[in-house]
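Journal club prep — side note

Before the paper discussion, L.F. wants everyone to see what a predicted structure for a comparable chain looks like in token form. Sequence:
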Amino acid sequence: MFQVIFNPVSASEMSALPKDLQLDLLAEFQIFPEDLNSLDEANFSMFQRDGRTLHRFRCKDYRIYFERHTDGIVIHRVLHKNTIRDFLFRSKLPMANEGDHADQAERTEQFWKMIQETPATTEKKA
């Protein structure tokens, strides 16, 4: 039997959304076992993380991150696009479950490396 399994984090993220949005996301996230071998590139992408292959499904303003499991798929995260949480997850930066995520990002070496690689803005002429 093919199952869609929410881990505790993704279940919490999903339950925090309004019920009508939850239903909309689940209605659009129609995936079957045979689909896992040929995912539509318009809505799905794939990347490697810690030796595992994760998939990202783009739906409305949300991103559903999941991976194959022997019984179906496991959903790891349900994140709003263009948020610090989505950026941190995609960039492999550490994410706290609670608190100020921007503060946590600032404490990481990768964050400061990214800032230093960004071209300096030009000064306005007086």
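L.F.'s comment for the group: The mean pLDDT is 75. Keep this in mind when we get to the figures.
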